[in-house]
Amino acid sequence: EKGKKVYRKCKACHTIALGAKHRVGPNLYQIINRKAGKTEGYRYSKAMKNSEVVWNEENLSKYLINPRKFIKGTKMAFAGLKKDSDISNVIYYIKEMSRKNWYGYF
């Protein structure tokens, strides 16, 4: 529930469901351990496409603190999350939503 609450800040721009369409930002379904800038059907910034970042929990945590500092030139306009607990909760939520969608719960 805590991660779902934090995710409300993300859902205006991102979906997180198997087969969901992209919004302003890419669908985050199964983003964990995926290479940045590689989601099918989304137009990433050059900076994101050319980065060598893999979205493991450590990199995603750093990115969520300040996206524009972590990947200079990203299109993501979000200012970032300041609380470590919010970051860990939203990452947990993304992982759970990816797992649930995969197993057909939605």
Q: Can you walk me through this structure?
A:
It is built from five helices and no strands. It is about 40% helix and about 0% strand. The protein has about 110 residues and is mainly alpha-helical. The longest helix is centred in the last third of the chain and has 19 residues, at about 85-100. The protein has helices spanning about 1-5, 45-50, 55-65, 65-70, 85-100.
In a few lines, what is going on in this structure?
This protein is mainly alpha-helical.
Low-confidence stretches: none
The mean pLDDT is 92
Report the total helices: 5
Strand content: under 5%
Order of helices and strands: HHHHH
Class inferred from helices and paired strands: mainly alpha
DSSP strand count: 0
Q: Can you tell me the overall shape?
A: globular
- What can be said about the biggest beta sheet? none
- Rounded to the nearest angstrom, the distance between the terminal CA atoms is 17 Å
Radius of gyration: 13 Å
- Helix proportion: 40-55%
Features:
106 residues
List the helices and strands and how they pair.
Elements: H1 2-7, H2 46-50, H3 57-65, H4 67-70, H5 84-102
